[in-house]
Write a structure and sequence with these properties.
This protein is of the alpha/beta class. The protein has eight helices and twelve strands. It binds NADPH dihydro-nicotinamide-adenine-dinucleotide phosphate (NDP) and ligand LZUJQKHR.
C-alpha cells in the first residue's frame, strides 16, 4: 500500500484524486494541504505546516496539483523529509523549475503536464507525422474550463516542445489584424469556457488535406488515475527527475 498526501487537496484535481484513490486497494490518501479550511475525511494542513504534516504522516509520496508557489513550498518539505514527489501543477517559471531540479537531487520527482495516457500516445505520434508531412503548416489549439489560471496549458507547451524537436519555428499566440502566416510559425490558440476538462488539437495542413491529432479528457479521473499510478511507481525509484512516459513504459 502506497500512502500519499495531496498538495492542493481542496481543488478540482484534489477531489478527483481522493475519489479515484478511494476505489483502489494499492494507494491511500492520508492527509492534504491547502490554504482554505475544509472538512474532509483526512486532516488538511495549511501550506506553512507542510513540513509538520509530512513528519506526522510519513507518507510514501506527495501528489501535487496546486499552484506553482505551493509546489515549491511542498517540494522543499519533501526534499527535507526524503519523500517522493509527483507534480501535476503547471505554469512554472524558470526559478520554479530549478527548485524541482534541486529537489530531485534528494528525492525522486516525477512531473508531467498531463497524466492522461492518451496524451502520451498523441505525443508519440507527433514525430512520425511531422516527419512524413515536412512542408505542412502546424497549428496547436487548447480548450479548458473557465477556472484555469495558466495559458497556454502545460500540455500545449509540452506539445510545442515536442514539435521543436523536429522543426524550427516561432510560436504565434493567436492572430489579429493584418497578420499573414509565415512559413516558420506555429499558431497557439487558447480557449476558456464552461467546465471543459481539457482538449488539445494539433493540425498539420497541406493543400487539399488536413491531419488532425486531438485528445479530449472527459473526466478529471483520467488525470487522477495517471497521477496515482505515477506515485505507486515512483516510490520504488531513487532520487532524480522522471516523466510519466517512464511509468507507461515500466
Ligand atoms: N498534469 C495534469 O494532468 C493536470 C494538471 N493540472 C494542473 O493542476 C493544477 C491544479 O488544477 P485544479 O485542481 O484545476 O486547480 P484548483 O484551483 O481547483 O485547485 C488548486 C488547489 O491548490 C490549492 N492551493 C492554492 N494555493 C496553495 C498553496 N500555496 N499550497 C498548497 N495548495 C494551494 C487550492 O486551495 P484553495 O482552494 O484553498 O485556494 C486548491 O486546493 C493546475 O496547475 C492545473 O493546470 C490539472 C489537471 C490535470
Ligand atoms: O488545468 C487543467 O484543468 C488542466 N491542466 C493541464 C495543463 O495545463 O495542460 C492538463 C489538463 O489539460 C487539464
Amino acid at each position: 500500500m502506497t500512502t500519499v498526501g495531496i498538495n492542493g487537496i481542496t481543488g478540482r484535481m484534489g477531489e478527483a484524486i481522493r475519489e479515484r484513490a478511494s476505489e483502489r486497494a494499492d494507494v491511500s490518501v492520508t492527509f492534504g494541504i491547502a490554504p482554505s479550511e475544509a472538512d474532509l475525511d483526512v486532516p488538511v494542513y495549511e501550506p506553512g505546516e507542510a513540513a509538520e504534516a509530512i513528519a506526522e504522516h510519513a507518507p510514501d509520496a506527495v501528489i501535487d496539483f496546486a499552484v506553482p508557489e505551493g509546489t515549491i513550498n511542498v517540494a522543499e518539505a519533501c526534499a527535507e523529509a526524503g519523500v517522493a514527489l509527483v507534480v501535476g501543477t503547471t505554469g512554472f517559471d524558470d526559478a520554479g523549475s530549478a527548485v524541482l531540479d534541486e529537489t530531485s537531487n534528494a528525492v525522486p520527482v516525477l512531473k508531467a503536464t498531463n497524466f492522461a495516457r492518451g496524451i502520451h500516445a498523441l505525443l508519440r505520434t507527433l514525430g512520425p507525422a511531422l516527419g512524413a508531412l515536412e512542408e505542412y503548416d502546424v497549428e496547436v489549439m487548447e480548450t479548458h474550463h473557465n477556472g484555469k489560471r495558466d495559458a497556454p496549458s502545460g500540455t500545449a507547451k509540452t506539445i510545442l516542445e515536442e514539435i521543436s524537436e523536429y522543426r524550427e519555428f516561432d510560436t504565434v499566440p493567436g492572430r489579429e489584424g493584418i497578420q499573414p502566416r509565415e512559413d516558420d510559425e506555429v499558431g497557439m490558440l487558447v480557449r476558456r469556457a464552461g467546465d471543459i476538462r481539457g482538449e488539445h488539437e494539433i493540425i498539420l495542413a497541406g493543400n487539399d488535406e488536413v491531419l488532425s491529432l486531438s485528445h479530449r479528457a472527459e473526466d478529471r479521473g483520467v488525470f487522477a488515475a495517471g497521477a496515482l499510478d505515477a506515485a505507486v511507481w515512483l516510490v520504488d525509484q531513487g532520487p532524480g527527475r522522471y516523466e510519466f512516459g517512464d511509468v507507461i513504459d515500466a
